[in-house]
């Protein structure tokens, strides 16, 4: 439990590319990322993109011909996952753009999650899902820990911490500095 490294959020992921230009086109026109300024001190070919609260740093491969190509789309392989508003709309757009994809469904206690998997130009796998349907349930024996969605989990955890502090204050275990 806790936050031993005092982390705040995921900042970016870096992807090695056979062609930075092709990857920029994909991440901008398929996934909606926006190119942003990159430090001029970086003396190698690359690009920085940003959207949805995350950065993607594209790095030009020093040997693009030796990069492995993933032809088979395997949902159990490494991937980046994005949540969407409408799986049906994403599927329609992927078909429109002639992007090959694999559909998958996850079911847990009557809750269904739809997933679409496809590759970027270099074979890095992308997942688009409605994963926020599944609540985040900590693997804790603490009965005070409640499940929450990915979006309201932090809010519920803060509310729980505040309630615990109020109880401690009322029981005289916590004093406030004034």
From TrEMBL:
CDD domains: VOC_like
Domain VOC, first and last residues per copy: 9-131
Ranges that cross the membrane: none
InterPro entries named in the record: Glyas_Bleomycin-R_OHBP_Dase, Glyas_Fos-R_dOase_dom, VOC_core
Gene3D superfamilies in the cross-refs: 2,3-Dihydroxybiphenyl 1,2-Dioxygenase, domain 1
Protein name as it appears in the record: VOC domain-containing protein
Species for this entry: Lupinus angustifolius (Narrow-leaved blue lupine)
